[in-house]
């Protein structure tokens, strides 16, 4: 582990965040379901990882616990890593959700920030992409196939905003499953 590891755009994420302005739009057999939600996301600095003695990554582990506003039920749970490859200006998000599905998404980061100096991160993964892809169980492939996942994050000044879009082939059509929330830093 290095003392002064470069976490690049991930540095601002490290900490515990809470947000109660979440909105989920999810597929149902008869259309779409809108689920207002609150959540806690914890990002923990893991340190550095070296691949093949040459690729240096800075790793941040996260867990995301999402609860319905209507009854407090945990209805989405996600865990994974954000990784920063400073030499290649590449951000990766690798994660799994307990439906039998794993994603390795990525994007480039060349210092993108908004007008207020907040960091902007975008990553994407597509089913069948040889570099940044999606793995799912045979059941999910046949009944609720995820074809694409994209994630936009804006973070800075103790505020974190995100918007994700997951394209799911379910109930005989393509559904744009979206999730968005704004979180405040707790620690
Ligand atoms: C805050 C984030 C998310 C929330 C709150 C959420 C919530 C939901 C809900 C309510 C459903 C409808 C079925 C059910 O009631 O369980 C659903 C379906 C689904 N979600 Fe998500 N989701 C989130 C993120 C994701 C992500 C990141 C992925 C994958 C990359 C994903 C993949 C799926 C798939 C494949 C289905 C179809 C399965 C089904 O409806 O039976 N979701 N999600």
Describe the structure in brief.
With 187 residues, the chain is mainly β.
Labels describing this entry:
67% strand, Lipocalin, mainly beta, globular, 11 strands, 1 helix, 187 residues, 3% helix, 11-stranded antiparallel beta sheet, single chain, binds protoporphyrin IX containing FE
Structure write-up:
It is a single chain. Helices cover 3% and strands 67% of the residues. The model has no long low-confidence stretch (mean pLDDT 97). The chain has an eleven-stranded antiparallel beta sheet. The longest helix has 6 residues, at 138-143. It is globular and about 50 Å long. The protein has one helix spanning 138-143, and strands spanning 15-28, 31-51, 55-68, 74-85, 90-97, 101-108, 119-126, 134-136, 144-156, 159-170, 173-185. It has one domain (8-185): Calycin beta-barrel core domain (Lipocalin). By secondary structure, it is mainly beta. The structure holds protoporphyrin IX containing FE. The site of protoporphyrin IX containing FE (HEM) has 21 residues, from strand 1, strand 2, strand 4, strand 6 and strand 9.
